[in-house]
């Protein structure tokens, strides 16, 4: 069956993969080669989803699923950003 895999980290990658029935998310990620292409991916740290819904690595895929590897999003506050709305 065909599934997609995307990652937008230091490198943006979008792959189409053919996997066997009953393949898990983790197995598809491993066999896709994306971990060699994007060495900043850490499956213990990064969240994984299918169409915006978090899933675990042992989740079994369905035809047409799109695996999404989410990078950690951080926000750096400036000195003048106190997270309060200014009325002035």
From TrEMBL:
<protein>
    <recommendedName>
        <fullName>Protein RnfH</fullName>
    </recommendedName>
</protein>
<dbReference type="InterPro" id="IPR037021">
    <property type="entry name" value="RnfH_sf"/>
</dbReference>
<dbReference type="Pfam" id="PF03658">
    <property type="entry name" value="Ub-RnfH"/>
</dbReference>
<dbReference type="InterPro" id="IPR016155">
    <property type="entry name" value="Mopterin_synth/thiamin_S_b"/>
</dbReference>
<comment type="similarity">
    <text>Belongs to the UPF0125 (RnfH) family.</text>
</comment>
<dbReference type="InterPro" id="IPR005346">
    <property type="entry name" value="RnfH"/>
</dbReference>
């Amino acid at each position: 069956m065909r599934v997609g895999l995307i990652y937008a980290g230091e490198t943006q990658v979008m792959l189409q993969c053919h996997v066997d029935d009953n393949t898990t998310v983790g197995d598809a990620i491993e066999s896709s080669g994306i971990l060699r292409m994007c060495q900043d991916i850490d499956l213990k740290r990064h969240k994984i989803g299918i169409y915006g819904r978090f899933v675990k690595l042992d989740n079994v895929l369905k035809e047409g699923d799109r695996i999404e590897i989410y990078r950690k999003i951080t926000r750096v506050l400036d000195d003048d950003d106190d997270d309060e709305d200014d009325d002035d």
